[in-house]
């Protein structure tokens, strides 16, 4: 019967941890940002497509209408 030393056990555990860690890192798809570019994950073809319906060209139409009404009211009060 062979005895496993503490050093061998630590080395084997570290090697096993390294193998499991590198396998998990390789199997995980994640976005990465390199030089200001957001690169897709490895599974970008299977991702859900996000749909945003077309909205108005001028996004502040209510605010513009309120400002116009306020200016018209100010002119009428003069």
TrEMBL record:
Signal sequence bounds: 1-25
Origin superkingdom: Bacteria
Keyword Signal: yes
Protein's UniProt keywords contain Signal: yes
UniProtKB keywords: Signal
Designated name of the protein: Uncharacterized protein
Lineage: Bacteria, Pseudomonadati, Planctomycetota, Planctomycetia, Planctomycetales
């Amino acid at each position: 019967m062979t005895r496993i030393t503490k050093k061998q056990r630590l080395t084997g555990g570290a090697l096993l941890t390294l193998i499991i860690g590198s396998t998990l890192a390789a199997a995980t798809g994640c976005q990465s940002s390199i030089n200001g570019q957001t690169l897709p994950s490895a599974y970008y073809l299977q991702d859900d497509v996000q749909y945003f319906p077309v909205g108005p060209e001028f996004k502040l139409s209510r605010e513009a209408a309120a400002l116009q009404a306020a200016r018209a009211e100010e002119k009428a009060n003069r």
